[in-house]
Design the sequence.
């Protein structure tokens, strides 16, 4: 089954063609990063304006890359949420129109489930159950994916998401948007012991996260240094901040895996592109005998391939959408909350 | 030739199918916005009720601004999706021209006003000229965002003889009273006929289609008439630095 999938939840205009949830026939991403950079972050109205003009080109590029026509496509999928409402609406409206005109099923996909499904594309042998650590721009979750259709959500962030913390710290350090990759790079040459930042573990046994305290501590440190005229290396702050985030993420993932007797661990979302996180998780994974999975860099941040992968399983589960499908900006990861 | 026209530029969600001399079917919902949810099901009903199919259309029309930014994109993305899937051309019609077509036999000035917030309206000034079989919409004030006071000044200047002027559009709710005080010959269109209708847009669109004034689904663009507020602020800042 060939699914043409559309993603427009933030500042990437993306279209892919995915076969049976596992094979990438096309994966086109038009990123608007350069357009938004001068504003220091994504401007929703500008993102939406670009989506609506770019979309037909990206659709055509995806078909060309796959050497297919619309007639060869079996279903149309689209990110229905979460994300920026105006941006989502472009993809949703376009997908609905394509599906209606082509008389094909329409599948509205949850973007966070999409991030997890990015791993299905890279690892044909990967099947649930597994434990997923989702670390993206807006979300941080520890979730047991019991089956393609059932998530058990064990942890979530109580304030900032991991990626959000990276972006905010980067902004204060003066790195260009998006900040995550810049911090990642700077951290490689910085001293992670330069500053001892707090690690918010929360109450005993909790798998929830909180990154706002850490973020404030970093901002205070920078302000303090600036006010007192103390010299500091940005790289050291970046490395110390990143180390604190990674400590919390790995610690909680290890505990969660042990308590739930899971050895299959999956990383997902934009922050799973982080070199430090990949390295640390690999080390910890070796120690605990994990099978560890994380997507190739191109599938970590937003793309439509992951939406097409997830859509296949939604389709198998009968979770298709009707012509009323709407954008759902505040959508959560579906599942049972524990 | 058959044309499906879509208009989600204002609170009205409306679509119509027309051919040369006939309005075949029309849907109008002037109640709560949810265009993204309602427009496609309404179009689906329109086709089911009339026994036609989307693929029977020769072109897709869309009202391309000004209006609600999000609403405009819902309509445009829908039209582009249809056109791309079926390899058909797109016809775009201005929201303001479409409103003027609500009054297409009115012989004097027509001034559509769409609420643009901040005391401003999206507006233009038109007149249908020529004879009844071939009447042409002529523009006397180009489309733009105008403060309501500026618009009133413009109209007074253009209309020294104090001919009748007909106002219509959703801007009447806020500004109708003030506009009606311009002169005794001002007319405000009754609410039922002052709002967007896809059939009016289709009337304008069909003329364009017959003349081959179409665009493809890559080119079809929106006329927001206003930049995003982030761009406006950036320009203000830049202006301060440069000037
Ligand atoms: N190498 C990296 N190290 C750390 N963070 C990174 C790296 N690369 C990307 N990120 C972060 O990942 C986030 C973007 O990821 P993603 O595209 O998944 O987020 P999003 O789509 O904006 O949010 P969500 O998926 O939660 O709706 C940004 O916060 C970015 O800074
Ligand atoms: Mg994302």
Sequence:
């Amino acid at each position: 089954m060939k699914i043409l999938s559309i993603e427009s939840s933030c500042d990437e205009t993306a279209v892919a063609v995915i076969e049976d949830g596992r094979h990438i026939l096309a994966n086109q991403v038009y990123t608007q990063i350069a357009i938004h950079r001068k504003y220091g972050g994504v401007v929703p109205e500008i993102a939406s304006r670009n989506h609506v003009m770019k979309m037909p080109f990206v659709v055509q590029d995806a078909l060309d890359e796959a050497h297919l026509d619309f007639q060869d496509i079996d279903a149309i999928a689209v990110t229905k949420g979460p994300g920026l409402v105006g941006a989502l609406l472009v993809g949703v409206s376009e997908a609905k129109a394509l599906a209606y005109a082509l008389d094909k099923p329409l599948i509205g996909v949850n973007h966070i489930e999409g991030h997890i499904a990015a791993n299905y594309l890279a690892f044909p042998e990967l099947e649930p159950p597994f434990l997923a650590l989702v670390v993206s721009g807006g979300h941080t979750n520890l979730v047991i994916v019991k089956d393609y259709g059932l998530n058990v959500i064990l942890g979530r962030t109580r304030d900032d998401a991991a990626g959000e913390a990276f972006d905010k710290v980067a902004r204060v350090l003066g790195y260009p948007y998006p900040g995550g990759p810049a911090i990642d790079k700077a951290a490689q040459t910085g001293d992670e012991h330069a500053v001892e930042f707090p690690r918010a573990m929360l109450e005993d046994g909790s798998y929830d996260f909180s990154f706002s305290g850490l973020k404030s501590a970093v901002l205070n440190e920078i302000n303090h240094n600036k006010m007192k005229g103390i010299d500091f290396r940005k790289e050291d702050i970046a490395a110390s901040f990143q180390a604190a985030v990674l400590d919390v993420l790995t610690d909680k993932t290890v505990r969660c895996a042990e308590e739930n007797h899971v050895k299959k661990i999956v990383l997902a979302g934009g922050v799973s592109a982080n070199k430090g996180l990949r390295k640390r998780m690999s080390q910890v994974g070796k120690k605990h005998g994990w099978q560890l999975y994380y997507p190739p860099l191109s599938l970590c941040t937003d793309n439509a391939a992951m939406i097409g992968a997830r859509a296949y399983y939604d389709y198998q589960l009968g979770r298709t959408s009707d012509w009323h499908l709407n954008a759902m900006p505040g959508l959560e990861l579906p599942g049972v909350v524990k | 030739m058959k044309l499906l026209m879509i208009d989600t530029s204002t609170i009205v969600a409306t679509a119509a199918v027309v051919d040369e001399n006939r309005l075949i079917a029309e849907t109008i919902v002037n109640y709560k916005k949810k265009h993204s949810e309602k427009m496609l099901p309404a179009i689906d009903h329109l086709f089911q009720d009339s026994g036609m199919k989307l693929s029977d259309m020769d072109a897709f029309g869309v009202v391309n601004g000004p209006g609600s930014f999000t609403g405009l994109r819902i309509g445009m993305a829908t039209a582009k999706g249809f056109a791309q899937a079926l390899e058909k051309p797109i016809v775009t019609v201005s929201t303001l021209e479409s409103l003027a077509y609500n009054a297409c036999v009115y012989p004097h000035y027509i001034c559509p006003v769409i609420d643009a917030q901040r005391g401003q309206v999206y507006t233009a000034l038109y007149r249908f000229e020529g004879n009844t079989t071939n009447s042409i919409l002529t523009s006397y004030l180009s489309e733009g965002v105008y403060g309501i006071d500026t618009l009133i000044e413009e109209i007074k200047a253009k209309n020294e003889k104090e001919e009748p002027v007909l106002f219509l559009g959703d801007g009447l709710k806020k500004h109708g009273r003030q506009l009606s005080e311009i002169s005794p010959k001002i007319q405000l269109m009754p609410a039922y006929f002052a709002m967007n209708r896809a059939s009016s847009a289709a009337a304008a669109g069909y003329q364009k289609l017959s003349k081959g004034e179409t665009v493809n689904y890559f080119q079809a663009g929106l006329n927001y008439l206003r930049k995003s507020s982030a761009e406006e602020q950036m320009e203000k800042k830049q202006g301060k630095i440069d000037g």
DSSP finds ten helices and eleven strands in chain A. The radius of gyration of chain A is 20 Å.
